[in-house]
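Key result, reporting period 2: structure in, sequence out.
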């Protein structure tokens, strides 16, 4: 492979891998009826004037499949964390005993499961769009290199290689979506 083209292909693969990692982190946030500390990822509480992720301001554990326990490092954070959870649209009702906050995870209804599957499919589609946009950008870089003197056959080979990367990453996206759908629909 040409030394001009290899950096483009390497960066394309890296960006597509990052799109897959982002999909995995987004799918982790979708609860499947089991308590998981990652459900609270993305929730931010005001910690002495600085917006801080709940996971950095408290210890979050799942003592059983239906309960999350949040133990703030600082007792003054109990009210703000509780308020943050209620204001989020997670559908969880925090119980505060002055020391820790307990979140009871209700079992999912069939209707809620179907909504979650739609969300999973939507996240998968977003990941596919990201991968395709990365492919488009890489192909444009190859075309610019071709205008600057890159041989046409090397350009065609590079575009084929980029298409192979795209196809393999889209298959991986589909696999992640199927696994998450199965997890959500399992009672």
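The corresponding designed sequence is given below.
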């Amino acid at each position: 492979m040409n030394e001009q083209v290899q950096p483009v292909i390497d960066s394309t693969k890296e960006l597509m891998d990052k799109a897959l990692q982002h999909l995995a982190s987004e799918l982790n946030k979708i609860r499947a009826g089991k308590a998981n500390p990652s459900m609270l990822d993305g929730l931010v509480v005001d910690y002495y004037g600085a917006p801080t992720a709940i996971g950095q301001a408290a210890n979050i554990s799942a003592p059983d499949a239906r309960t999350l326990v949040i133990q703030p490092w600082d007792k003054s954070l109990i009210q703000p964390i509780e308020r943050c959870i209620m204001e989020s649209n997670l559908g969880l009702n925090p119980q505060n005993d002055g020391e820790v906050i307990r979140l009871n995870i209700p079992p999912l209804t069939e209707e809620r499961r179907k909504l979650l599957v739609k969300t999973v499919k939507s996240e998968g589609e977003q990941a596919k769009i990201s991968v395709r946009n990365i492919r488009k950008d890489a192909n444009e870089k190859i075309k610019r290199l071709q205008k600057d003197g890159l041989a046409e056959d090397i350009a065609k080979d590079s575009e084929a290689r980029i298409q192979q990367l795209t196809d393999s990453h889209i298959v991986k996206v589909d696999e992640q979506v199927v696994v998450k759908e199965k997890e959500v629909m399992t009672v």
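The beta strands are 44-47, 50-53, 58-64, 67-72, 94-96, 101-104. The first strand starts at residue 44 and ends at 47. This case is discussed further under Risks and Mitigation.
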